[in-house]
Every structure is written in C-alpha cells, then in structure tokens.
C-alpha cells in the first residue's frame, strides 16, 4: 500500500513538531489507541484495538525514527502484530514546511499487511487507511485548536479547525493496522516529530 498527502496546519512548525512527539497528544488523536510509550530517543511502542470489516484484534507495534532533522523532517519505520488477525510493516517520510504563521505537514507511506487483514482486499484496506488519516488530522486539528486557540483564530478559513468529527463504525475508524501505524506514523502519527 502506498499513501501520500499533506495538511495545512495553523500552528507553527515547532508547535507541530512538539505536538507530534507528545505521546499523550498522539494517543488522543489515534482512535482506538491505548498506549504510546517512548523507548529511548528514537523508538516508540504503540497499542491499539482495531477492527476492519469482520476482523477485530488488539495490535501492538514498534516505531523507529531515523533521518531526524528537527523540526523539519524524519523517516518512520514501523511494524505491528495482531496475532492471527495479521501484521503490518513499512515506513513513512514526514516533512513540515513553514509558510506564513502556519506550516504544511506532508507525508508519504509505503506499507504492507499480511494475515486476515490482507484478505480483506486492497480496496477496503486503502479506504480504511485514508479514512484513518483524515480522522487523525481532524482529531489533531481539534487538539491543536484547544492548545493554541490564537493560532486558529488568525488562520485562513482553509486552515481553520474542523467541526467535531462524526462518529464512525469500527470498520472505518482507525481500522487497518497499517493505516493506523501509517497514520500514526505518518501523521503522527504518531510519534513523529521530536
């Protein structure tokens, strides 16, 4: 699976970098996540409950950062296991580019899944991963709006924080292990930007 995208953020590059490296912020923004722990300066573990179609499982994963260039970019390598439900692994390149009073977060993810998750079909997996990425960004925007209300008050309309995300069923909300790790990874996902 390959996924790429970008998101305009009203906060500064440094604020985004700091937030994306805060395990509590990441845990809050990743649906189904119950654990984000640092294990050294460039390694994290993550735990989350996922459901993709009829497959539901508790996944655990490891994330390692490399090519770290604060507060601009890094590469995230990840792998996760969900027992018989499957596994996911891959990497993501994350880039923060300042513009005006905000910045643009860009990401490119390369990942693969196996086990029952892979049997769901590429189309479903891709759809869930994209949905997870959007959900992560909505939650991240809301968290940053609460933390930095002045930045969002001054932001252009296309960068303003979205309304509260609509609830989704277990199949499309933070569903795929790869999507989750990719989002978490990619986005932030998780544990990014330190």
Summed up:
With 194 residues, the protein is of the alpha+beta class.
Describe the structure.
With 194 residues, the chain is α+β, with helices and mostly antiparallel strands. It has a single domain (2-187), classed as START domain (Alpha-D-Glucose-1,6-Bisphosphate, Chain A, domain 4). Helices cover 29% and strands 38% of the residues. The chain is built from five helices and seven strands, in the order βααββββββααα. It has helices at residues 13-19, 23-29, 122-147, 149-154, 177-187, and strands at 2-9, 33-38, 43-52, 55-69, 73-81, 87-99, 102-114. A seven-stranded antiparallel beta sheet has the order 1-7-6-5-4-3-2, covered by helices on one side. β2 and β3 form a beta hairpin. The radius of gyration is 15 Å and the shape is globular. The two termini are 26 Å apart.
Tell me about the largest β-sheet.
7 strands, antiparallel
The CATH architecture comes to 2-Layer Sandwich
Tell me the domain tally: 1
Rg over C-alpha atoms, rounded to the nearest angstrom: 15 Å
N-to-C span? 26 Å
Q: What is this structure's SSE topology?
A:
Elements: E1 2-9, H1 13-19, H2 23-29, E2 33-38, E3 43-52, E4 55-69, E5 73-81, E6 87-99, E7 102-114, H3 122-147, H4 149-154, H5 177-187
Antiparallel strand pairs: 1-7, 2-3, 3-4, 4-5, 5-6, 6-7
Helix pairs in contact: 2-3, 3-5
Which terms would index this structure?
Alpha-D-Glucose-1,6-Bisphosphate, Chain A, domain 4; alpha+beta; 194 residues; 7-stranded antiparallel sheet; globular
